[in-house]
Amino acid sequence: MVNWLDIETKWRKKWNEGKDFEANPNEKEKKFITVAYPYPNSPQHIGHGRTYTLADVHARYYRMKGYNVLFPMGFHYTGTPILGMAKRVEAGDAEIIDGLKNIYHVPEDAIKTFVEPIKIADYFHEEIKAGMVEMGYSIDWRREFTTIDPVYQKFIEWQINTLKEKNLIMQGSHPVGWCPKDQNPVSQHDTMGDVEPDFTEYILIKFKFDDYIIPTATLRPETLFGVTNLWVNPQTNYKKITVDGEKWIVSEECARKLEFLDRKISYDGEISGSDLVGKEVTVPHRNEKILMLEASFVESHTGTGLVMSVPAHAPFDYQALVDFKKDQPLGSE
């Protein structure tokens, strides 16, 4: 019977003693192999195995083709997930401590040190590296680094500045998940349970109401010409705000969200939804007046807290209008 473990051990030892994966300057054509750095907040898992095996196959292929291949490995220490883990350990969070102890089999003495984020990163750095060595990856471990090494940080600064000087990158803006408590962006891995931040991009339609704008958020701006009315919740207290010099009426939740969208907001007062019911707004591009009608189904946390009604394109709006008419006294318009 073949002892596969002995074979693995034999070849790992041979590669290590022969320094087969150490890339030094020579006359051969160069190939530099890089791959996403592992994030050391847990041991190596099957996803790591897939990712780094692909890179290793790539590196070995080019060595066989006669290239001088450099395959280094970095470890991604920066980011908020490790900071979040440290805060939870410090707070005595039973769930994370149980996971570290019984799933990852981290010794209790090590867990006690995990109140320091660097200790978490260092521990799982070595766990992941041990797994890579055991897998026999053809990495030049002399070129091992982390993203908090001063030399690496200088490299990133040089890289960004060089690209900017060549006009190959520019600073802009794009939507990100945002934590109001910590005042910084968050990604999926920053959240409890790996929840992907969700973005819905709306088009605002601005309806004129006296000296104010009543904006509604829609995914179907082309249906503007079929708008028959606006829906407003009479139980909601709406905010009068100034947005970049323009006066708006929106829900409190909408006003709060606008503060995170690079808008200049000031609060001028409030108005009850019941005071808006029955009032008229002017439809843009049609210059026609339509009514604001009451609807308890309008949610203040969705969009602007006011909804444009297009019964020709939205069955829900059509049914809401049918129900609204049934509730009106006989003889009313």
Short description:
The protein has 333 residues and is of the alpha/beta class. It has helices at 4-18, 46-64, 80-90, 94-103, 108-113, 117-135, 150-165, 252-258, 273-276, 315-326; strands at 30-32, 68-70, 73-75, 144-146, 177-179, 184-186, 203-209, 212-218, 229-232, 237-243, 246-251, 265-272, 280-283, 288-294, 306-309.
Sheet with most strands: strand arrangement: 13-14-9-15
Any idea how many domains? Answer: 2
**Highest CATH level, the class of the largest domain:** Alpha Beta
| Major sheet attributes | 4 strands, mixed
**How many strands appear in the DSSP assignment?**
15
Would you identify the CATH architecture of the largest domain?
3-Layer(aba) Sandwich
Shape: elongated
The string of secondary-structure elements, in order, is: HEHEEHHHHEHEEEEEEEHEHEEEH
**Count of DSSP-assigned helices:** 10
Q: What is the residue-mean pLDDT, rounded to a whole number? A: 92
What share of the residues does DSSP label as strand, in percent? Answer: 15-25%
CATH topology descriptor of the largest domain = Rossmann fold
Amount of helix: 25-40%
* Structural class category: alpha/beta
Which runs of at least 5 residues are low in confidence (pLDDT < 50)? none
- First-last Cα distance: 91 Å
CATH superfamily of the largest domain: HUPs
Using only C-alpha atoms, the radius of gyration works out to 30 Å
